[in-house]
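FAQ: What does a multi-protein file look like?

Like this. Sequence, then tokens, then the next protein.
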Amino acid sequence: MATNKANSGGTFDGLSDIIDLPEIRDDDEVSSAPPPLLPKPIRYLDLGGYYSEKMKKSSEKTPPPPLPLPLPLSPLLALPAPLIRRGRGRPRFCYVLASSKKEAKGKVEGDARSAAVIDGPVDGRPRSEDDGATDVIVVGAGVAGAAIAYVLGKDGHRVHVIERDLSEPDRIVGELLQPGGYLKLIELGLQDCVEEIDAQRVLGYALFKDGRNTKVSYPLEEFSSDVSGRSFHNGRFIQRMREKAASLPNVQLEQGTVTSLLEEHGTVKGVVYKVKGGVESKACAPLTIVCDGCFSNLRKSLCHPNVDVPSYFVGLVLKNCELPYPNHGHVILANPSPILFYPISSTEVRCLVDVPGPKVPSIANGEMTNYLKTVVAPQPVASTINTLAGALYKVFCASSDEARNEMREACFDYLSLGGVFSNGPVALLSGLNPRPLSLVLHFFAVAIYGVGRLLLPFPSPKRLWIGARLISLGIKECNRV
């Protein structure tokens, strides 16, 4: 059984998140993972996100740094973003994420996929050969690492990628690429990585609740016909990205396990790693990027993650099954928490069951089988939404709290109205609209819509109290944005 722990919280300003959807199979092989916990309920695979809009505008006036680092976060994924400190007493341009272990303070939230130390010349001139044969070391060749390696390699930098296992991953993460993520792939020249892997187009979501259903589509009218979401086997996508990066002559892809960072006077100079056979090697470069996944053994050198695991995903693959709405993700607002369905190939559908609680039911003693048979199977079939974290996770889960149940009902009916009421939230979920203000407005709109339902035709003291709770919940969730 595979178990992953997720973090929750913030990311670097101006960057987006990598979707990190966690695998049960129909051949009784069961695995589990926590659901993707998003700092914001905007989930899409952003492999670029170079800088914030402010930085983009300023870059028009001044030359960019010599190593414009695309920081993909993972959603899956996400980057631990405690603080960014400028290195002191050094003659070269340098941004450091915790320049020493003592400086690595603060609560780290998010999916904690990557960390970076950026060090390069101020004037942007090419490095001399005296600086070494490598400009950048990338630890990890997942979505983040492979994308960074390709982009920096394409720009002419010498990149050394060290990945602990170059075989095709078999995981239930990063399987649904939102349209905003596909646009980022185009920006980076990586859009062909979703080709030849039997990827399926995703055009929106279908929601099911208490025998009712509604469909919401991505607002793609202003984009070319090839722009849509994509769903696929994560491992196939990863291998395509690795092949793309390794195709560049100045990108070296090596299998090895990084054991520690090389530090000198609080500055990261490179890494220590072991290759097959246990032989230890060292690699040095002016820039070291760590993006070695949720099981990173290097993160503790840079930060102290505060892990919160509210629930786990249990996943299975359904073969030769037809979904009610082709080319759509399906969201079942079940009791006690959502269930997701989406295609990952032309013959396979992924089902993700959210199991609340800090501990996943045991497979060995039959707890998992019993949970699926007695809790999940008796419920009507429906589908789930891509975003199961943060505020939306709480909205979609059944609760003994009347106000939360009313918010859940109001959210479903609000999306069923269609038009701007569904286009706005779906644009946020698909990564086509990254503006937090839009999210805040829709949260309040759902709360007010719910209050209106309560007060008509005749208000009562109890309904007034629940209405006040709805407004309070709306404010609380907006504060998370």
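And here is the next protein:
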Amino acid sequence: WRGAGDAKDKRSDLRVVGLGVLVSETGHVPLLYRSYAGNASDQAVLGACLEGLRQLHEALDEGEGRAQPGQRTLVRDGGFWSPQLELDLDAVGYYSLISLPLGHKASEAALQMAADRGAMKPLPGKLSHVRAARMRTKVGELDRTLVVVESEELLKGQKRGIAVALRKAKKELRKFERLIEKGRITHSQLEQRVQKTLAREHLSTFVVTNVGGTDKAPTLRWRVDDALRRHLEQTRLGRRVLCTDRHNWSTARIVSGFRGQWNVEELFRRAKKGGVVPWGPSHQWTDGALRLHTFATVLGLMLVSLARLALKTDASARQTMKNLGDIRATLVRTATGKPGRRPTVMLAPELTTQQRRAVKVFDLERWFPTILSCMTREAVDP
């Protein structure tokens, strides 16, 4: 969920349009979408979509001819955490899977449990390179299963961020020492500025400081504790706490389900500038025109996803669309030297194996009646 309302930087000539999309796990086909003001709260927008989710839930059950309601799970990131929202999702028939904010009390307990020796264990199958720990506990008044999962990519990114922040913090702390020597900073000012400097990237966890002295003659001592830094890396960095009411799911299934969000992000990348279904440029301004423009974009995203599903291809969306776009038949008007309408002849294109398959899957014979009959028997190399 991301991104019509006034721009947050107060520009009157710019409108920011947010788009929330619910997609299927298989093929990541858009099932429900909402366009909204970009300066609106994501939580509020999701809450406003709950009735639409309920209706979608019922329509899917009816379309599938289910005697019992289907079990469906809504996966989202930590920005959507709310105990009330969890209850509301349950009321409309959705299970929940979310990345719990690390500052939450339940997250702290889960991280402490995962820090015990032997708690983190490798997952089976394709996720054998990932370690995770699991516990069942109360999250507020809710009964939830928590999974602490490691991510090497997240760990590397956080360590890079900490290294950059630490260099800046050291520079600031040395600056404070010079201000102390010149008598240009008070004790209270020093405390506030030190606290602000170490507020970034977990620095306060392993940068030990001691502000002393009097108000007019403060003192500052500081050091980087390598042991505390290593402990931070081993017990907190690179870890997420997943929270779900899918108690019967395996740990690997929970982790795999959460990581499926990457495919939703891929859907948004397709709608950005340079993507296969770019949302812009848009020259509309009114809400109605912007909604219609967004509808056309979502329709395009849906068609791309359905096309990839129908072709059962591992090719990227861009490559798939390029292959389809290159299927072109040439209509030639022949010259007979006689009056009247000139007869035409259709020349079939040279097709790759993937394109020949697409011709059959999408029944393009309906649109090019002779395209199959005049195709060469051998597929050309792409």
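Q: Is there any per-entry metadata?
A: Some entries carry free-text notes. For the entry above: The radius of gyration is 29 Å.
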